[in-house]
Amino acid sequence: MPAKQSAHSAGAGLPANTSGAHPFARKAGSYKRGWLLLLLLVLGSTAQAADRIISLGGDVTEIVYALGAGKQLVARDLTSTWPQQVQRLPSVGYLRTLGTEGVLSLQPDLILAAADAGPPSVLSQLKASGVNIVSIPQARDLAEVQQKIRVIAQALQRDPTPVLQQLNEDAQRLTSARNKTDVPVLFLLTHAGTPQVAGRDTSAAAMIQLAGAHNAVEQFEGYRPLTPEALAVQAPEVVLITREGLEQLGGAAALWRLPGLSATPAGRHHRLIAIDALPLLGFGPRTAATAVELAQALQASLKP
Amino acid sequence: MSRWLAQRTDQRWALLALISALLLALSISLQSGAVPIAWNEISGDSLNAHVFWQIRLPRVLLAALVGAALATSGAATQGLFRNPLADPTLIGIGSGAALAVALVVVLGAAGSTLGGTYLMGIAAFIGGLLTTAAIFAFARASGSGIAGLLLAGLALNALAGAVVGLLTFFSTDQQLRTLTFWSMGSLGGAQWPQVWACASIALPALILLLTLGRGLNLLGLGEPEARHLGLNPVQLQRLVVVGVALAVGAAVAVAGLIGFIGLVVPHLLRLAFGGDQRWLLPGSALCGAALLSAADTGARLFMAPAELPVGTVTSLLGAPFFLWLLWHQRGWRI
Fold first, then answer.
1. For chain A, N or C: smaller number of CB within 10 Å?
2. How many CB pairs under 8 A join A and B?
3. Are A262 and A197 in contact (CB under 8 A)?
4. What CA–CA distance (Å, rounded) separates B149 from B91?
């Protein structure tokens, strides 16, 4: 089990350099022309760049901060919990049940909306009220994460290079980290009621694959409650869970008491990995770093 | 005679009080919201004017309309079944609407677009009406009058609920969330087209229901007695079901399932009006409209800039008040 949310993932989230926003000023030939150009640039960018932004979606908010635009945020949604300082911002509620007037009361000039933000009628009212809404594509692999970062950077008129570079570095570490760990991994979702397991086409399955293992349950799409008997047949070698989910369940001891789980190889050897939900499932800038963490944890737990 | 007159005067006062309560609720609702808007800002072309005319006003009107439709339908259904626990879901509108919405969401992937939202509304309306028609047909075939209606309603509601459960099982994560939020009910995203669509169906249905007070009073004496007094119970039953199905169907189509109002508003009003349906029906319309627009104002304000589900607020405001009344009205006839 990994001890804690590791330090390198925090490093990926912090902007390395944001001064790249106005690189043209130095290139201008004469001072006079340079100043004019700078003035034009500043005027142009204040006319265009948004300074009251609402970010909807935990991954989107993470990327906004990674790009160094966190100070321009005026509000967030309930799923935006990282970095810590974002929790001081007012919340517009759950991103699927937004209220038109509440959002407008914050006078946003740009809304960065994750794919599942809504309801659609509220988004259309916001558009009709003249707010610029940029919808951010979903991501299930690293190329799509890059695309997500580029779309947000373009909307913010920021340079995505430092964030993409960090992601690339993490991805390179991942290539060396993910070897000989291709075992079936079971992801448990424990929101409320019966715990559910992740099937095909889930962000959990995508993350498990990214870390070099494979998802134990391939029979269905999405999250379903799995019967204890079927659980034993899937024979997962490792159980993966979000840290929040494990707490809700009452810790590792409570988890192994779930019916059917103790009969699996993972249950017999008590192989459990818990990682924070947002970096694990959000597919934001920490994705590659978290996949490295998962791959290392897998190797550590599979050591005899 | 003089006692009857006195009671009638009381009812007039109560109706007047309800009208003023509705006007008060509407004006408070129009004045409050996350965006502070002064009365002198609502003319012109500013953002505040836009918020007032395009966002707040349609929502307040829709809340009043849906509240009136649900409460009046509740009173009429309770009168028809002569049972204080009856509510419009008994004749299948809620379950039928839920079934149709689940079908379009799970099989048609509606809900993620604006067109999908409209599709859900249309499906809810048609599904509610079809289920009600089916319940009605079974009841008539059974030939056992209102009891038959009740039993056919119970069976078809159970069936619809089971199919919704099955569809839920096959739904993806996103579809499941769409269904869950639909079933919580919301007036968020109300726009003028929805107001017009809902009003064009719910208002005629409401007017129809309001004319049925005398008939429901007679029916309250018992089916055979009503027949002796010249009432055709089958005809009345048909009119009530049509009126309730259209009114609630239109409400559910635009706002999803909003509970509590249809069941409780008629009870509250029996305190003021007694059991006379001629007063109870218009009273329920006014009180339902006032209560839902007040509750929706609360839903918009309590957690601003976020929003609460309005069904939660109606229950939060209404249920304690209802319990308080229950406590203080021992021996209250329901």
1. C
2. 102
3. no
4. 8
Distance CA B92, CA B107 (A): 22
The ipTM (two decimal places) reads 0.81
Instruction: Mark yes or no for CB contact A104/B47 under 8 Å.
Output: yes
Are A54 and A92 contacting, i.e. CB atoms less than 8 angstroms apart?
A: yes
Q: Across the interface, do B114 and A221 touch by the CB < 8 Å criterion? A: no
**B174-212: per-residue pLDDT in tens?**
788 888 888 888 898 788 998 999 999 999 999 999 999
DSSP state of A283: -
Per DSSP, the residues of B79-105 read HHHT-TT--GGGGTHHHHHHHHHHHHH
Q: How far is B223 from chain A (nearest CA, A)?
A: 47
Residue B325, classified by CB atoms within 10 Å of its CB into exposed (0-12), middle (13-18) or buried (19+), is middle
Contact yes or no for B189 and A223 at CB 8 A: no
Answer whether B173 sits within 8 Å of A222, measured CB to CB. yes
DSSP A67: T
Instruction: Tell me which residue of B59, B61, B40, B37 sits closest to B48, measured CA to CA.
Output: B37
User: Which residue in chain A has the smallest CA separation from B52?
Assistant: A101
The strand pair at A184-189 and A214-215 is best described as parallel
**A193 touches B at CB < 8 Å:** no
The residue-averaged pLDDT of B118-126 equals: 89
Query: Nearest chain B Cα to A202, which residue?
Result: B173
